[in-house]
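step 3/5: co-fold with adenosine-5'-triphosphate
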Amino acid sequence: MGGLKDSMRDAIKQLAFRTSVDRLKKQGVTQVNVLGLDRIAALIEAAVHRSLKSRLVGADREVVADATKAEFLRLLRSNEDLLREKSEVERMRERAEEELDALRRDLAQQQSALKLKLERLDPAAAGRWHGEDGAIAGKVAAIVQALANGGPTSADDVQRRLTELVMDVVSDERRDAEAARQALIDRDVAAMQRRIEKLTGSLSLTEHKLQQLSAQHSLDSGISSIYREVQGLAPGDERAETKKGMMAAILEANLRLQKRGTA
Amino acid sequence: MMSENKDKDAKTHGVLYIGMDLGTSRTSVSASNGVRETVCSVVGYPKDVVSQKLLKKDVLFGKEALEKRLSLRMYKPLEKGVLKYTGEAKDQEAKANLKAAQDLIGEAIRLAKPRADELVYCVIGAPAEASVKNREAIVEAAKAHVDAVMLCSEPFSVAYGMEMLEDVLVVDIGAGTTDLCRMHGTMPEEADQIMFDVAGDAVDAVLAKRIEQSCPGAQFTIQMVKDLKERWSFVGDAPEKCLVELPVDGKPTQFDLTDQIRAACSILIDPICKGITKLIATFDPEFQARLKNRVLLAGGGSMIRGLDTAIEKAMKERLGGGKVLRIEEPIYGGANGALKIAHDMPADYWEQLR
Ligand SMILES: Nc1ncnc2c1ncn2[C@@H]1O[C@H](COP(=O)(O)OP(=O)(O)OP(=O)(O)O)[C@@H](O)[C@H]1O
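step 4/5: write tokens
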């Protein structure tokens, strides 16, 4: 029976709420009645026993005791179920958080890679080569012109002009290579941008999921009511009739108000 | 998987009743899981994205909102006991106040710590004078969080909670309004109730004015005045000297505010006695004597020391006598009563409102 007593003590403890003397004072409470947990547990036990004894004959007593035991075990089980659900939610939440972190890291990496690429794309270089191309073309025209005209040519002169010609070819190659590189970069940039967009999308999705999980979590960790079923007026209430009339009047006023709202 | 709050089938764990007192200055809840909480009726929203990032919240309530008010848009959604929103006003301010009221009601319900798998039934004590639009707004706000909700008059729930259903006169002294309600065994009607706006806020205003006039250079805010009133309030013979420190040019300076506090708190006595007299004089003569001897002071204002004696004295002059009682728990009287009503409401009544 000690186990049951302890469980009862724990259950009562769970139903209680904590507050400080200062807080109570602030709320206008000046005196409190103090009743220890053990005493409450003992009172409940005594009450159950007394009512069992006074109301039931032997056979019934056992049936009720069994039913009570079953109910108690059921309560314990439902508590365990809830604990399990709670840790499941916590695990899901942790996973979502990890996913979120990974996404954030990935996004940051992609963004800095893109930045690097864009920096390498030096727009000044293109302009410079453009100018050089023009100059080389001019020089080729001059060599061709000179050779065609059959004017005086020294070895030095030819060597210089040939070098210029080679440079011209190299410059062409260089330009082609640059164009290809540019196309590649453009494709890379577009792909990266798409990837970043996608990452941003899944990031906000995961964040949303996390929020939902958190909301669920906080809803679940509520405190159990002391009632398993809807109550209503106690049958033995001395003023049941008066109160019934009042309840009916409150309901009527609220039906009027709330049906009006939905009409 | 978790179920949604409104899912009826999943609510197999139990029934949580919540009683709520929705007040101008504070909102309290009392619930059948033992939770009792109270929150100042103020709501704050971050002024901009920067504050929002910093505060990490979309909305703040009560004390926390007051502490961070510099980075918040602040709302006090109730005024003189009713929502500032009237249903007609279309301007931004009215809408913002409605949202603040709804968020406040949601927060009060969250404070009661309901479980997702419990049926939640809530009774809200609202001022008797609240307009239909106003009541609808309150119901709508609550319905987003509970399975069914009912409103009832605030002073009635106080009386019900104390099992004083017959021949009792409740005087509920709140912040925005003082509500008088005569109970005679059935639901009180319009003729049984009187409301006026001489209440806690009016006392604060008078006290602020008196301090301004008598304490040259003293610096204070209305919140400071309210705090010191709540610390020192009394009427009649002073139980102690009210020595209060207020800054003058930044330097804490002591003032004796005994007379000012007495004078400010005393503004409640006359209108309350007039109200009592009216409700007694128009009552069935056979029961007048009994009613006179069962005047129940409730609400935050009932904590003013000496107020019961002062009202008894005034009743003796006007009505030849009377007895004034004080509620034991002024802060939770309304919420406790609403909780009791929720509990006593038959199951099929609740069903009709789901
Ligand atoms: N010790 C005290 N002495 C005097 N006044 C007090 C004391 N404590 C609280 N009050 C005042 O009581 C008022 C709040 O009372 P209560 O909480 O019953 O009102 P409310 O329900 O918020 O307002 P209302 O009923 O007008 O909507 C405030 O004006 C507060 O300053």
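step 5/5: annotate
The longest strand of chain B covers residues 14-22.
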